[in-house]
């Protein structure tokens, strides 16, 4: 495989934090200068056509990444913002279940990223109620999902890859189960996009939310949502602005018509800079290919796990893990590993007894072997 690490600017040391922030592509500084700063400097207000082209290119790269149409993507500041927008846009006329109850319950696993739960709780005044599947159940336990499903569940939120465990959800199986209860199914891909291949044509879900700050190496501030085009006309966003309009440049305050595709969720004057940065990351990831990144990550994880496995408090299966190894160790071993990682100038994080070590395309086999050797010498 060609050395893709040369395409990224890496911090000094061993970078194992892609689950937090992906590394900067080498081309980002120059490309953002050309697409954002130079038009601003040279054209001022006439830079808008160039800037809006950046957004279209951003959505086009997303369509390539997820095997969907460009028109079905819309920029969002974050995953939680997209989820909140989506929930508020659900049609009220279809809320009643077969039993006459209102469909306002939102179901997700308790190991979902907390921001998703906060987004639902923030809509309690609209009648939404958060229901969590307890953490003692595996996220792929279909019986646990079945136990919590009922006719009053409006939306099931599936985390594709869990940030605190690395567990990959079987989206197809869970979504098919939820859809038998006529629940809408939405998926959070913040921890999988770019590291684990995603095909929306295979999933057939209702919506998808993600961010470019992690494995997509796009920096913070560039989130996105995809909405299934079969259901888009049923959705009426409540946070409207001139870019939610079918014709943003009509400038008639007495006439509003929703944009035909997902851009109806766009809102007011759009942010450009985060998407100019994220576009470069998306182009880089698409050029390398999520399949190649996933295969490379697995090869490095295999090297580490071969030495780490005997030390773990919780067994780990690489087939059920995303790009991050979440390794649980005893206190004595945790202290020893932490010292070794710090001595190697490694970037990592530790939450209680769990070390999270992420393996991206810019990580090398030599780095994986170095970490494996650390485990070989644990007490």
Molecular structure report:
- By secondary structure, this protein is an alpha/beta fold.
- It has two domains: 4-25 and 289-376, Alpha-Beta Complex (Aspartate Aminotransferase, domain 1), CATH 3.90.1150; 29-287, Type I PLP-dependent aspartate aminotransferase-like (Major domain) (Aspartate Aminotransferase, domain 2).
- The protein has helices spanning 28-43, 48-66, 79-89, 114-121, 142-148, 171-179, 200-203, 273-288, 290-308, 331-343, 365-376, and strands spanning 8-9, 14-15, 24-25, 73-76, 105-109, 129-133, 153-159, 184-188, 207-211, 223-227, 324-328, 346-347, 349-351, 354-358.
- A seven-stranded mixed β-sheet has the order 4-10-9-8-7-5-6, with helices on both faces.
- Helix 7 (200-203) links the parallel strand 8 (184-188) and strand 9 (207-211).
- It is globular and about 75 Å long.
- The mean pLDDT is 95.
Number of strands: 14
Structural class: alpha/beta
Proportion in β-strands: 15-25%
Strand order of the largest sheet: 4-10-9-8-7-5-6
What's the shape?
globular
CATH architecture of the largest domain: 3-Layer(aba) Sandwich
CATH class identity of the largest domain: Alpha Beta
Total discrete domains:
2
Helix/strand order, N-terminal first: EEEHHEHEHEHEHEHEEHHEHEEEH
Rg, alpha carbons: 22 Å
List the helices and strands and how they pair.
Blueprint: E1 8-9, E2 14-15, E3 24-25, H1 28-43, H2 48-66, E4 73-76, H3 79-89, E5 105-109, H4 114-121, E6 129-133, H5 142-148, E7 153-159, H6 171-179, E8 184-188, H7 200-203, E9 207-211, E10 223-227, H8 273-288, H9 290-308, E11 324-328, H10 331-343, E12 346-347, E13 349-351, E14 354-358, H11 365-376
Helix pairs in contact: 1-8, 2-8, 3-4, 9-11
């Amino acid at each position: 495989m060609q050395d893709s690490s040369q395409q990224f600017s890496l911090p000094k040391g061993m970078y194992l934090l892609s689950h937090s922030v992906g590394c900067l592509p080498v081309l980002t500084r120059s490309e953002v200068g050309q697409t954002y700063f130079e038009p601003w400097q040279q054209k001022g207000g006439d830079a808008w056509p160039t800037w809006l082209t950046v957004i279209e290119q951003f959505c086009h790269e997303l369509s390539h990444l997820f095997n969907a149409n460009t028109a079905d993507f819309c920029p969002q500041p974050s995953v939680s913002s997209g989820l909140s927008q989506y929930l508020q846009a659900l049609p009220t006329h279809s809320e009643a279940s077969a039993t006459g109850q209102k469909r306002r319950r939102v179901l997700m696993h308790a190991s979902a990223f907390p921001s998703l739960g906060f987004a639902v709780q923030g809509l309690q005044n609209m009648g939404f109620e958060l229901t969590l599947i307890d953490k003692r159940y595996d996220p792929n336990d279909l019986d646990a999902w079945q136990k919590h499903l009922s006719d009053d569940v409006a939306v099931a939120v599936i985390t594709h890859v869990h940030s605190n465990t690395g567990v990959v959800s079987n989206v197809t199986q869970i979504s098919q189960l939820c859809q038998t209860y006529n629940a809408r199914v939405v998926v959070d891909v913040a921890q999988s996009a770019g590291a684990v291949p995603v095909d929306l044509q295979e999933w057939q879900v209702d919506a998808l939310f993600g961010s470019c700050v992690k494995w997509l190496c796009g920096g913070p501030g560039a989130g996105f949502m995809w909405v299934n085009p079969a259901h888009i006309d049923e959705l009426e966003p409540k946070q409207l602005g001139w870019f939610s309009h079918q014709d943003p440049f009509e400038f008639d305050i007495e006439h509003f018509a929703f944009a035909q595709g997902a851009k109806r969720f766009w809102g007011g004057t759009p942010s450009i800079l985060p998407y100019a940065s994220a576009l470069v990351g998306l182009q880089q990831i698409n050029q390398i290919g999520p399949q190649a990144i996933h295969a490379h990550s697995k090869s490095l994880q295999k090297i580490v796990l071969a030495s780490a496995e005997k030390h773990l408090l919780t067994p780990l299966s690489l087939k059920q893990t995303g790009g991050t190894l979440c390794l649980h160790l005893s206190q004595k071993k945790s202290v020893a590993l932490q010292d070794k990682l710090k001595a190697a100038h490694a970037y990592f994080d530790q939450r209680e007894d769990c070390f999270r070590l992420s393996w991206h395309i810019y990580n090398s086999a030599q780095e994986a072997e170095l970490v494996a050797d650390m485990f070989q010498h644990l007490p």
